[in-house]
Amino acid sequence: MRASVAIQTLPASKDNEELVRVVDEVIAYIKSTGLHCYVGPFETTIEGDDYDQLMDIVKECQHVAIRCGAPKVSAYIKVVYEPEGEILTIDEKVTKHHQD
To answer: How many angstroms separate the CA atoms of 16 and 30, rounded?
Structure first.
């Protein structure tokens, strides 16, 4: 894995129900990309080898939120990119914390 992106999408909304509905649509879009992702309570992390593809997904998340009715959207993004090497994967980072 060469790149990992964590995105927190925060659509403006009239109430929590609307906020969750829009965020759920953004998460559904991320899952539809077929890339490995991990949904956490504050952000969703996506990993892949194609940096440009990940950045396109980040951009599209904003468009999804607007198409779902959000009048505006904020996003907080974290990126790890190592074009000539390997990064720690999502599974390497969190699996040990989710085993029973």
So the answer is: 21
CA–CA dist 61, 32 (Å, integer): 12
What confidence tens digit (pLDDT) does each residue in 5-49 have? Answer: 999 999 999 999 999 999 999 999 999 999 999 999 999 999 999
Which strands, in side-by-side order, build the sheet including 36-39? 36-39, 44-48, 3-11, 73-81
Extract the tokens encoding 67: 């198409």
Give the pair of three-digit tokens for residue 65.
Answer: 């939120």
Domain range summary for the chain, segments of one domain joined by +: 3-97
- Residue 98: its pLDDT value, please? 87
- The fold of 3-97 is Alpha-Beta Plaits (3.30.70)
- Report residue 6 as tokens: 């964590």
Q: Go through the chain and tell me how many residues it has.
A: 100
